[in-house]
Amino acid sequence: MRKKSSSLSLFKLLQGVFRLSLKYPMLLLVVLVLGLGSYGYEVKIARPALLYQGEPRPIDFKNSDTWFRILRNHGFILGYSDLRGNPLWVEYALTDQIADTPSMKRPNHFETDWRSINRVSHESYQKSGYDRGHMAPNYAMSHLYGREGQADSFLMTNITPQKPKLNQQVWQHLEEAEIKYFAKLFGKVWVITGPVFSGSVERLKSDPMVEIPDAFFKIYLTETAPNKPPTALAFLIPQTVSGKEPLAQFLTNIDSVEAQTGIDFFTELDDRIEEHVEAAIEPLSWGLPAVDKVSVHH
């Protein structure tokens, strides 16, 4: 009854606005101007602040599997697929200031994103055999962007199904490495992460709106500086990990991630720089051998 009442109230509100616009045409003009201004702010200012070198784009716009809606949050931005019940990519920036902020208590419940069409919920994953895997990490979002950043990281549009050994071991190792090593090494690092789908479509038995990925990617990129091109590091990690593998085992390049996801990243990067950066595999620049030697406590 609550949903029906809410829908009725919304209808009455819209009806009232329509009647007012007929009676006062200037009111309609003001509403249109405000709407266009809000859209302009979103596209020209708010989104670019959370993106590095342009918005990711589907390589083939005819392929509906790579369609997404861009959702902006506190501290991160993502492209969400209502068809797959997954974020196809999530982007955020890490800085070396992350260790200087206090820890926050972890929420015990994930929230349905009011912007999602499929209404994936906390309960969608119950008894599924899969963890609710954060793409924008709780630790980083809470430390860098406070309570609001943490709350947004617990929206289900930021979550994707991960097997426990991946989520709780290899993925956690990588999240700790990006905070404790990569961000400190470069001062600021941009991260794009998300799921990879291949082969036959498999969905959660607990909620068929959620497709199960076969693997996950993470791309790290430093910012360009005068006479200093960006440096990239990319990983492609399958769901089938045992949990004890070194991160170096999953090294790849951005070109490979783009080919498997069907998404073009860093679309505004200079073509000459992009060609080199996206083909490179340079773990030594990121100190990966030393990271893999460190025992990470889970």
From TrEMBL:
InterPro entries: DNA/RNA_non-sp_Endonuclease_sf, Endo_G_ENPP1-like_dom, ENPP1-3/EXOG-like_nuc-like, His-Me_finger_sf, Non-specific_endonuclease. GO terms for molecular function: endonuclease activity. The keyword Transmembrane does not apply. Residues 72-272 form the DNA/RNA non-specific endonuclease/pyrophosphatase/phosphodiesterase domain. Residues 73-272 form the ENPP1-3/EXOG-like endonuclease/phosphodiesterase domain. Keywords: Endonuclease, Hydrolase, Nuclease. PANTHER family: ENDONUCLEASE G, MITOCHONDRIAL (PTHR13966:SF5), ENDONUCLEASE RELATED (PTHR13966). This is DNA/RNA non-specific endonuclease. It comes from Candidatus Methylobacter oryzae.
